[in-house]
Amino acid sequence: MIIAVDGPAASGKGTIARALAAHYRLPHMDTGLLYRAVALNLLRWGGDPESEFQALRACDFSQIDFADPELKSETAGGIASRISVYPAVRAALAQRQRDFAGQAGGAVLDGRDIGTVIAPHAEAKLFVTARPEVRARRRFDELRQRGVTTHYEDVLIDIRARDDRDSHRAAAPLRRAEDAHLLDTSDLDREAAIAAAIALVERARA
Ligand SMILES: Nc1ncnc2c1ncn2[C@@H]1O[C@H](COP(=O)(O)OP(=O)(O)O)[C@@H](O)[C@H]1O
Ligand SMILES: Nc1ccn([C@@H]2O[C@H](COP(=O)(O)OP(=O)(O)O)[C@@H](O)[C@H]2O)c(=O)n1
């Protein structure tokens, strides 16, 4: 079974995707990490995010340690959303995601375009969302726990900017697939959100 989990920043899609993978014993891919890795490569090479050509050259995972905590920084997330508008970058990362989705037994993938572009044939699709203020609070708490000094208002501004860029780009914009189940986690704690996600997957399978 392929499970596609899409949604905006800090909606809880990664938490839900990891829990679904554990529940159904499926491998999981956080596709945002691929875009973040390209962003980090570009940053470290001193490349220009405004250049599609330079961003494409940064699609090289040979130097990337996917456990690098820098991948999770707001800087990497912001640059990732800028370079992910380029069709050439998206094309360079697509096959790796399709291969992962296509493995025997299935997989869980989370991102922005899994249900619409990468795995439109997925058996179960979730579109996870939450109010921007709730998402900013979650991301702010997460950053603070990691020892990052920031302001809630700045995190909210970044989240709104990323939502806008991800939803309005021409290539594979963030949108709910017509057959995706909407899951708003604004008023759900982690356990309730995970239980709701499992119930939706069960409904999709039935
Ligand atoms: N339902 C929830 N209630 C409260 N906090 C949550 C919930 N879901 C996720 N979180 C927390 O919010 C932060 C962002 O969640 P994450 O799953 O990484 O989101 P995304 O993958 O959409 O960016 C994490 O610190 C996570 O533990
Ligand atoms: N499948 C995907 C995944 C991420 N992305 C881009 O990569 C950025 C970082 O994604 P992420 O999932 O790691 O971000 P968070 O939701 O964890 O903050 C997003 O803002 C998108 O612009 C994408 O375009 N397509």
From TrEMBL:
Instruction: Kindly indicate whether the keyword Lipoprotein belongs to this entry.
Output: no
Coarse class of the primary localization is cytoplasm
A GO-annotated cellular component: cytoplasm
EC number, as in UniProt: 2.7.4.25
GO molecular function terms listed in the Swiss-Prot or TrEMBL record: ATP binding; CMP kinase activity; dCMP kinase activity
**What are the entry keywords?**
ATP-binding, Cytoplasm, Kinase, Nucleotide-binding, Transferase
UniProt keyword annotation of Coiled coil present: no
Q: Where in the cell is it found?
A: Cytoplasm
Q: Which residues bind ATP?
A: 7-15
Q: Which reaction does it catalyse?
A: CMP + ATP = CDP + ADP; dCMP + ATP = dCDP + ADP
Residues of the Cytidylate kinase domain: 3-202
Q: Name one Pfam family in it.
A: Cytidylate_kin
In Gene Ontology terms, what is a biological process of this protein?
A: pyrimidine nucleotide metabolic process
Q: Which family does it belong to?
A: Belongs to the cytidylate kinase family. Type 1 subfamily.
Q: What is this protein called?
A: Cytidylate kinase
**What organism is this sequence from?**
Allosphingosinicella humi
What lineage is this protein's organism placed in?
Bacteria, Pseudomonadati, Pseudomonadota, Alphaproteobacteria, Sphingomonadales
